[in-house]
């Protein structure tokens, strides 16, 4: 049995006991039956009224609960719709009171969510408004009257966060640019003259609008100031270069140069003005010393002509160079020509330097070739002849390589500029060919002169005999080398060094018997012995071919004067009368 039923039974028991007690009291009092009935009816009516009232109250409670359930259901539907949530489902077997409680608590929960979302939305809108005022951007698009969904709030939060990041970035950029702008304005002696410049420089950083247009304008202002500074730097650099050039042309003493404004670093406006004043002063001096300045410019112009390999005809094309009327107009013409030549040289500097490198190697090659005609080089020991031969071979390879590289570069240059690349008035390959032709002509001329000289010398020796010469002193390689005796065409030669044979032939004096004898070609037993070192290395065919004229002469005449019986008893030959090149010397030495 439930407790409520027990309590109801106890209530009924209490009522029965009370009625019994009342009857007993009435009995004792002696109340008549009719009054007892009336009193019992009053008790009944009172109890009934009390119970009816209690029932009515409970019925009213039930109705209120049902109404509350209905209202909660309606409000839940509205809240779920506003919060974009699914419908709330109640338990089917729950009582009215439990259902009302559940619905009421759910309504309170959803109302709190709604209130929280509205408050967060309001806070985000306030932040958005502040950021939009600073950044000059549009507000986030959202319905302020509606309850925002969780996705809307999350998107709004991200939007506000991005605006905060953008604000910080622009703030840093503004502060950095402002600092640079202030420094540039100080360097340029520039005073803010527009409202925007004053806002940037003078106003507080917190009050500056960080809009995209303002940031762009700030960047443009910074770029303009940097461009002005770069222009100032370029102008100052040009003024400094102009001052140095005028110093050189005017030959200003070092003491005056050290006191000049050119040594002031930087490119401030006052520095620029000081440099300009210095240039103006030097220009006045230049006008006062026109002749010397023009002559200095002409020397500079000549240097650029040489660097650019200008021919005489090209140089004569600038007629003011030969004008003797030293005027300011003539100076301006020379300045313009120097500027043009300097620009031309700098533009094609790599090609001109390559040609210059070929020229230097070519001159070194010619110098080595001239050394081959110097007889004194045969008296020098230490392997210099071999070194010269190696250097000459290396130079020939270098010249060939440089010539091929230059030919490719010149062709590319001519294709690019659609004109011929001239070196001393000729196309480069024609110039190179002409140098080689001149070289071969000079070699042929030297060869013919050498042949003529040899022929005349042989004729003179055959008619008058050779003149004795003092032997060339040579450093003794080994003082402990024993004396050796060699026979050369039947004649004994005393020697104290292993190389006495060569020294006897080239510059020494050879003694012969006064008796007449046949030339070496007619003797069989008295011919000169070839040194062992020479015999170990037979002459190369190429050297024989180069010096066949010397060999033919040596085959037909005696080397040191053994000719006719009427010839003097003592004869010698110099190096120049026997060999003029290393190859000729090698052939004669081998023979």
What would you note in describing this structure?
With 591 residues, the chain is mainly alpha-helical. It contains 20 helices and six strands. It has helices at 3-29, 33-82, 96-135, 150-187, 195-201, 212-250, 254-258, 269-288, 290-307, 312-316, 328-347, 349-371, 384-417, 428-464, 500-505, 532-536, 541-546, 548-556, 575-578, 582-590, and strands at 422-423, 426-427, 484-488, 491-495, 510-511, 570-571. It has a two-stranded antiparallel sheet. A two-stranded antiparallel ribbon has the order 3-4. The chain is rod-shaped, with a radius of gyration of 62 Å. 13% of the residues are buried.
Sheet/helix structural class? mainly alpha
Largest sheet: 2 strands, antiparallel
Number of strands: 6
What is the string of helix and strand elements?
HHHHHHHHHHHHHEEHEEHEHHHEHH
Shape summary: rod-shaped
Number of helices: 20
Radius of gyration: 62 Å
Q: For the largest beta sheet, what order do the strands appear in spatially?
A: 1-2
Estimated helix fraction: 55-70%
Distance between the termini: 155 Å
Contiguous uncertain segments of 5+ residues: 472-591
The pLDDT mean sits at 75
Beta-strand residue fraction: under 5%
Keywords: Coiled coil
Coiled coil: 100-130, 215-242, 385-416
Protein name: Protein regulator of cytokinesis 1
Biased composition (Low complexity): 528-537
């Amino acid at each position: 049995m439930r407790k409520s039923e027990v309590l109801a039974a106890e209530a009924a028991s209490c009522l029965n006991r009370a009625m019994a007690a009342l009857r007993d009291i009435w009995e004792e009092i002696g109340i008549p039956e009719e009054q007892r009935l009336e009193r019992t009816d009053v008790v009944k009516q009172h109890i009934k009224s009390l119970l009816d009232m209690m029932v009515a109250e409970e019925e009213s409670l039930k109705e209120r609960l049902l109404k509350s359930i209905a209202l909660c259901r309606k409000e839940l539907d509205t809240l779920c719709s506003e919060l974009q949530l699914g419908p709330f489902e109640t338990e089917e077997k729950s009582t009215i009171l439990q259902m009302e409680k559940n619905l009421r608590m759910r309504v309170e929960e959803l109302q709190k969510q709604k209130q929280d979302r509205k408050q967060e939305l309001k806070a985000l809108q306030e932040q958005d408004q502040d950021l939009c005022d600073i950044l000059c951007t549009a507000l986030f698009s959202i319905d302020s009257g509606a309850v925002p969904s969780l996705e809307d709030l999350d998107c709004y939060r991200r939007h506000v966060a991005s605006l905060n990041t953008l604000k910080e970035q622009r703030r840093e950029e503004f502060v950095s640019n402002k600092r640079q702008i202030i420094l540039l304005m100080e360097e340029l002696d520039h005073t803010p003259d527009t409202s925007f410049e004053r806002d940037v420089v003078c106003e507080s950083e917190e009050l500056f609008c960080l809009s995209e247009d303002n940031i762009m304008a700030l960047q443009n202002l910074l770029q303009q100031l940097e461009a002005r500074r770069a222009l100032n730097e370029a102008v100052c650099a040009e003024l400094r270069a102009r001052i140095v050039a005028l110093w050189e042309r005017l030959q200003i003493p070092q003491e005056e140069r050290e006191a000049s404004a050119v040594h002031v670093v930087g490119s401030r406006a006052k520095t620029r003005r000081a440099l300009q004043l210095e240039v103006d002063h030097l220009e006045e001096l230049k006008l006062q010393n026109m002749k010397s300045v023009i002559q200095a410019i002409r020397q500079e112009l000549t240097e650029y002509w040489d660097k650019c390999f200008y021919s005489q005809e090209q140089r004569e094309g600038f007629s003011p160079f030969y004008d003797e009327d030293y005027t300011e107009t003539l100076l301006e013409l020379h300045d313009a020509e120097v500027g043009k030549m300097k620009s031309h040289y700098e533009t094609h500097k790599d090609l001109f330097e390559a040609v210059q490198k070929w020229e230097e190697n070519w001159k070194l090659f010619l110098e080595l070739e001239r050394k081959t005609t110097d007889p004194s080089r045969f008296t020098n020991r230490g392997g210099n002849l071999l070194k010269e031969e190696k250097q000459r071979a290396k130079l020939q390879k270098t010249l060939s390589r440089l010539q091929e590289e230059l030919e490719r570069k010149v062709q590319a240059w001519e294709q690019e500029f659609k004109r011929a690349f001239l070196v001393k008035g000729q196309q480069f390959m024609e110039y190179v060919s002409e140098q080689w032709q001149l070289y071969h002509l000079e070699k042929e001329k030297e060869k013919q002169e050498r042949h003529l000289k040899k022929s005349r010398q042989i004729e003179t020796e055959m008619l008058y005999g050779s003149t004795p010469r003092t032997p060339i002193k040579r450093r003794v390689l080994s003082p402990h080398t024993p004396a050796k005796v060699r026979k050369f065409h039947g004649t004994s030669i005393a020697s104290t060094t292993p190389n006495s044979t060569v020294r006897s032939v080239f510059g020494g004096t050879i003694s012969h018997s006064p008796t007449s004898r046949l030339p070496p070609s007619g003797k069989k037993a008295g011919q000169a012995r070839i040194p062992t070192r020479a015999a170990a290395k037979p002459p190369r065919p190429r050297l024989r071919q180069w010096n066949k004229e010397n060999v033919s002469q040596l085959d037909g005449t005696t080397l040191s004067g053994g000719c006719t019986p009427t010839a003097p008893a003592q004869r010698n030959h110099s190096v120049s009368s026997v060999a003029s090149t290393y190859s000729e010397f090698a052939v004669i030495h081998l023979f």
